[in-house]
Write a structure and sequence with these properties.
By secondary structure, the chain is α/β, with parallel strands linked by helices. The chain has helices spanning about 10-25, 160-170, 210-220, 235-245, 265-270, 305-320, 375-380; strands spanning about 5-10, 30, 45, 55, 60-65, 75-85, 95-100, 115, 120-125, 125-130, 140, 150-155, 175-180, 185, 190-195, 205, 225, 250-255, 275-280, 280, 290, 295-300, 330-335, 340, 345-355, 360-365, 385, 395, 400-405. The chain has 4 domains: about 5-25 and about 180-320, Molybdenum Cofactor Biosythetic Enzyme, Chain A; about 30-50 and about 145-180, Molybdopterin biosynthesis moea protein, domain 2 (Alpha-Beta Complex); about 55-140, Molybdopterin biosynthesis moea protein, domain 3 (Molybdopterin biosynthesis moeA protein, domain 3, Beta Complex); about 330-405, MoeA, C-terminal, domain IV (Beta-clip, Beta Barrel). The two termini are about 35 Å apart. The structure holds ligand LQZAQKY5 and molybdate ion (MOO).
Amino acid sequence: MTGFPTRIAFDEARAIIQRVAASRKLPGEQMALSRAHGRVLAQEVIAGIDLPPFDNAAMDGYALRHADLRGDGASALQLIGEQFAGPSLELRIDAGQCIRITTGAPLPHGADTVVMKENARLEGGRVHIDPAPKPGAHVRRQGEDTRVGDRLLHAGQPLTPSRIALAAAVGMASVEVSQRPTVAVFTTGDELVEPGMPLQPGRIYNSNRELLMGLLRSDGLEPTAWPTLPDDPVRIESMLRDAAQAFDVVITCGAVSAGEKDHIPALLQAQGRVHFWKVRMRPGMPLLFGELERASFLGLPGNPVSVLATWLTLGRGLIDVLQGSTAARPRLFARLAAPWHKTHDRLEFLRGRLRPCDDGSLMVQPNPADGSHRMRAAADSDVLIVLPEQAMEHATGRVVEVLPY
Ligand SMILES: Nc1nc2c(c(=O)[nH]1)N[C@H]1C(S)=C(S)[C@@H](COP(=O)(O)OP(=O)(O)OC[C@H]3O[C@@H](n4cnc5c(N)ncnc54)[C@H](O)[C@@H]3O)O[C@H]1N2
Ligand code: MOO
């Protein structure tokens, strides 16, 4: 098979995925804020009001004019009314007067300061204040957080709860977000048996389906698991075509390497398009990326840890760019708690366990069970340790990038 890049560097694979995904970016849709969590924003959000929308109290207490307070801590002001958080009563205070107020209530006209209840004592209609608050204390000014016309959010930002809350705070009930890709998930191989069924000799339980579905769900997707593909090229072709006509993304795991039953790369080349096959990474080397019918196609290698590593490092990037996300994931670095000798010159994503040190830095303990079938080591770990291409010896204390999962 030829006519496409193969055995490419990891960065090249990532660049190809980004380029192809950008050209297949999904359209936007209007979505109620209550359903928009985790979606990628497809519009700018401009503030239509100030935040706070009016001057208001930051504490329960009394609103007053600071000029009326005496410096010796013996001030007493006349209580003339009360303003609670809610409709503004448009109250006004004059010299020597104050108004009872609660947190969030609009400040009466003439008032410039709030004394908290704990520093005030009401006696016979007069409020005795001790100690005196500072000028302007406990007042939240109109527009101090946001001004009308400010650009609050921009297209490409994933909607976190605080961003959704900001849009709600300026009164938006819905926003335009990118459509979320629909994803079909396939496992492959005649050796697979579903958990709960008897296990015959030579067969193994299907663990990749749960792994992949879980990884996709953790990224906010609602994937659909299809029946396992048998090692039969005719059936594989018809099931994959069906899925690729209906879904935005088709993900398979297994049947992408060099074996007699690894039918998927040839199928994709004949019936669709291959953008690359094989990346100089470990695990995950036989990764396949292309297009079939209307779908982007990701063929992950079958070894369970390869599924984990290829999804985390490359697959989710496809989903991000299809949705127009411009957010870079936060990067973490840690020092190796033990030396590691690489036995190959590919880029390695080793499993490890992260722990904080007293000096505020992070250490990572590599798990010695580095085979791509060693799911237990993956389950015992919480990060992938990135060990660059070429470099073979990695001494204790060396700073390495880690990818949490
Ligand atoms: N001659 C070569 N052999 C292999 C190569 C190679 O370059 N030349 N690459 C090796 C590497 S690296 C990997 S990774 C695997 C990838 O193989 P496939 O993607 O074709 O996957 P399968 O052969 O179908 O399965 C590999 C392995 O994973 C188990 N498996 C598959 N599906 C599941 C599942 N749903 N749940 C649990 N386990 C699963 C399967 O039984 C195999 O043991 O190829 C190497 N070989
Ligand atoms: O590239 Mo494979 O995933 O190492 O076993």
